[in-house]
Each structure stands twice: as structure tokens, then as C-alpha cells.
Amino acid sequence: MTLFKLGVYNIKHNFGRYFSYFISTLFSVFMLFTFFSIYFNKQIQAFSSGKVKVDTVFKAASIIVVIFSALFIWYANSFFIKSRKKEMALYSILGMKKKEIGTLLFCENMSLGILSIIIGLPLGAIASKFLLQLLVNIMKGSVSVYFTVELKAVIATTIIFVALFVFNSIKSSEIIYKFKLIELLSAEKEAEKAPEASKIMALISIVMIFSGYFIAYNNLLKGGSKMMYFGLLVLILVVVGTYILFNNFIVILLYGLKKNKKLYYKGENLISISQILYRIKANSNLLATIAVISAVAITALGFSFSFYMSLETQISYSAPFSLMYRSGDEALNNKVDKIINKHSEVKVTHKSNIVLIDGTALTPKYKGSYSKDLKAPFGVNIMSISEYNEIVNNTELTKASDGLGIVKNLKFTNDNQCFFIEMSNDTKRGRLKGEKVSCETLGKSFDLNIVDSNDKGVMGNNFQRTTIVVTDAFFKKLVDINKNSSTVIRGYSLDNSLKSEKLVTELKQIIPEDRYFDSFYSENAGAYRLLGSYVFIGMLLGILFVLSTGSILYYKQLMEAYSDKERYNVLRKIGANKREMRHMVSKQLALIFGLPLLVSLLHSSAALSVYIIKLMGTSKIVIKCTLIMAAVYIAIYLCYYMLSVKAYMKIVRSNS
């Protein structure tokens, strides 16, 4: 029998040991091919016009899949090879040379890798049409996707994974040269050192994690030049704190259970707690890594899904009018009206001419869009209360104002009052209430009392600016002295903005760029394309992450089951029955699978709570989406847990 045939024979007759590794590598091939297929697909490239670069997003996602797949294959393969040290020693005893054993391992790894590619590529090709259609539907597109196999995607995926499998196969074949025969034979009997942990480091881990949460809540969403530094600081504190937590705090916690004599000497706890203590310490870095990866996945999925679900409300804020532009001469306005009237698929329900006066202002507590104290006058728009209320009550904002926190039905009691709209991330409703603001326009100075303030403007992305809303009477006086310097924004509300694609396309051709034309349809299409691609990528990457991390844990437990086999044989000989052994295994694996999941849920809950409170208020959508993502993660980990318990029991109870 040749070495290649022997390798194939080993895979066939021990496929249970290879199965989890094979499925995860197969899914990695499937995922990368899917992303490459989307990246090279001409229909998707058609979505990448203008500001929205969907193909760039998928290119970045493909790089993430390659990096993660490389790390996963290397990690899982190292576990698998360690579990086979005794098998390699037996080959050596039977007369096989080191070179032959190395070649055998190389053939086994390459066979699995090639099999993953051979099966993964056709599966990806079959599924790509359905996944592409799903992507188009998520992006609210109206394109019908046709079946195609992207040759570039096939070549790129094959080259990358062949390179990964060759590298790992070479590393696997080299292991036989690194150990002596006696070391390979006694690999499963290596003495375990008593776990050590520091109480000071345990305390530091808790302080670091909660300090990260505190900084995120108080500083991360303020904006400004320091936001990146705060973000990096939070990341370092939470990630490093998590590693220290698993290496120290959890170990000390288990030592505490050991000191509880009533609990420790109850039933099989005497054995199981000690076993868990050693296993947690031995796997601490792995568990911390899985906790961090899972936290990132759950947070990203919860954020993207919730933002996607509330996108229509957010788009109303970006483009309150169905159509809007900076008004020009009457000839342009008449031409626009003529084109709108020509399109029977939509009907104008309201038309506005919003007058904005340019000015400067100064008020002590205002920090501006970069959260810096503004000691010099800053630019503002001044608008009338009637036009403010007109926008809120007659545009897309009407149905979205509650979700956005827009102030409705604004009222003043005298002409020296104003409503202040801040352009800042660090603000709350009414933060500037009671303050005075000094304003100036065309040399005319005046002071106003701020009766209320908010950070939600009503002029859309193109015309959003720090704004002061004043009474109609006071605004009329300002208009009289600013007749030639005021700006008029022309806005149209349609009965169905989403049916205005043809109209928007035609208007873009006649309205000059310096008029800053924008439409609800364009903002809606762009937002759904971009966020839809994020949701799609997040969904697939989330599945990849949970399958890969679950597989790594599963593999690690199988490896430990082989090393624990003798211990359980001794327990069986002294009277432990199947139920008691299963109970011990279940408790041990419950902590191994449960602890990283629990910590990841804590991290993601903290991150998303900042998002809910700071950006969206108490949002049911965010909570609902996060709970769904967490439930899916828990369900998949529960499946891996049950498979691990079953496989673990099968190994420790087998006679061979």
C-alpha cells in the first residue's frame, strides 16, 4: 500500500475525527468563493456606481475570510496533529521512517484540503445565484440575477486555498522531526502543572474591562479628533482585560468553589471541579480569543441588522424632501416643474421654498461638530419657525420624527426666543436651554434666548448646518436686510418617493452640481445598497466565525478526551457509572463552551447599549435584533456542545 493510499484509508476509516475540521474548511472555501463571485459579478458591479462601492466592500470581506481561514486552518490543524502524536510513534515502531511518516501526514492534509476545494467550489457555484438574489433583495434592488460561474472567482479561491493547505501540510509533516519517539509515546501522559493565578491580576482584569465600558459610554461617541484614540483605548482595555480574566479571575473563582467544602465534597464534584480547573487554565488563551471573536461578531451583526431595520427612519433624516435643491433662477425652477408634471407615476403633495439666512453666532456651551469649545463665532443658518414646522409636518420626516427625536410643533412666546439645532455628537435635548446666543448677519447684531435645543436638523445631508430657528416676525426683519444674501431651498414632497427613479435620473441631468440636488430615492437606494451589503457580509461572516470557533473547541475537547481516557477508565473501575461520568463531562464542557459565550454576550451588550442610549434612544429594534443574534449564536454553540459531549463520552468509554 502506497503512502497516499494509506492516507486516504485513514481518512475513510477515521472520518469522525476529521469531520468537524473538514466541514469548517469546506465552509471557508464556500464563503471565499461566494465573496469572490459577488466581487467579480458584473450585475453587482452595476450597483457600485457613484458613492456606493459595493464591490469594494466585498473585496474587503474576502480579505477578512482569507486571513481568518488561514488562522483557523493552522489552529485546527495543530490541534489535530497533537492528538495524533501516539499514532505517529506507533508508525515509527512499526518501521516507518520519519520521512515516510511526514509524507503520510502531508498526503492526508492535502487530500482533505483538495476534497474541501472540490466539494466547496460546486456548492458555492450552485448557491451563488440564490445568495446573489438574496443580496439584491436585501439591498432593495429590482434586478433578477442570472446564473453564472465566475472563472476569476474559481481561480482565485483555488490558488489561495491550495497555498494554505500546502503550507499547513508541510508544517504537519515537519512535526515528526521535532519530537523524540519517547516524547510522542508519552504525549497523552504529560503531567499537568497546578494552575496558578494572581488575585491582583484578576482584579485588574475586572477594572480594565469595566473601565473600557465606562470610556466607551462617556467618550467614544462624542466625535472629534480624539474619537480614534478613545476607540483604540477601549479596544485594548477590553481585549487585554478578557485575556487576563480567563487566565486569572476565572481560575481564582474555581479555586473558591474548591474551598467550599460543602460543595466540593458533594457527589462527583471532587473530581469534576479539579478537572474543570485544569482545563480552564489550559485553554484560557483559546477561550479568551473565542470570547473576543464572538463579541465582535454579535456586536457587528446586532448593529448592522438593527440599523438596517430602522434605515427608513434614518433616510428621512438624510433627505426629508422627496426632491430638493438650492433654488436658482426661475428658468431652472420652471424646467424642474415641467419635468415633474410630465411623470405621471408620482404626484406632488407639497412644495416648499425654504429661506435660510447665513450668519454667525456664539454661545458659551456649544462645542460644535468636533466636540471642541468654540470661543470664536461659528457659522449658522437662520430660519423661521413656520418653515421649520412646515418641513416637519409635510415631508418624509412626518412619519419618522418620533423615531428620530425631531421636535414637533415648535412654539415661541416672544420675538427674542429661539430654538437652537446643534451639530454635535455630544448633546442631549435641551442641553442649551436657558442660554443666550449672540448672532450677527450682514453687520446686524442681536441676542436671543434659547428656549430649547436639539441635535436633529431638518434640512437633510446636503444643507445640514448649525441652525437657529426664530419667530416669523423677527425672521421677516432679517429677510428685509438680507434680500440678496439669503439662500432658498426648493423642496418637493411626492405621494410615493420610491417610485421616482426615472424622475430623479432626468432631474440629475438638468440640475447643476452647484445646486446640490438630492432626493429621498437616491438616499434610500444608496443606503440600502451599502447597509444591505454589510448585513449580508455580517451574516455570512458571523456563520463562519461561529462554525470555526465551535469547531476549534470541539476539536480541542476530542484531543483532551483521548488524554483523559485513562482517568475515566480508572473511575469506571472504582465504580463510576455511565450517568455519573456523563454528568462530569457535561459540567466540564458546559463551562468550556459557556464561559466564552457568556463573556462575549457581556461585551456585546455593553457595546450595543452605548449605541442604543447615545445614538438611538431606547430602541426596541436594536434590542430585538441583538437578542435574535445572541439566540442564534447560543443555539449553534449548544449543538457543538451536545456533539462534543457525545463524542467525548464515546472516546472515554471505548475499549481501544
From TrEMBL:
It is found in: Cell membrane. Keywords: Cell membrane, Lipoprotein, Membrane, Transmembrane, Transmembrane helix, Transport. The chain crosses the membrane at residues 21-40, 60-80, 101-125, 145-170, 200-217, 229-257, 286-309, 531-555, 589-615, 621-643. It is a multi-pass membrane protein. Residues 61-170 form the ABC3 transporter permease C-terminal domain. One of its GO terms (cellular component) is plasma membrane. GO terms for biological process: transmembrane transport. It comes from the Bacteria. Belongs to the ABC-4 integral membrane protein family. This is ABC-type transport system, involved in lipoprotein release, permease component.
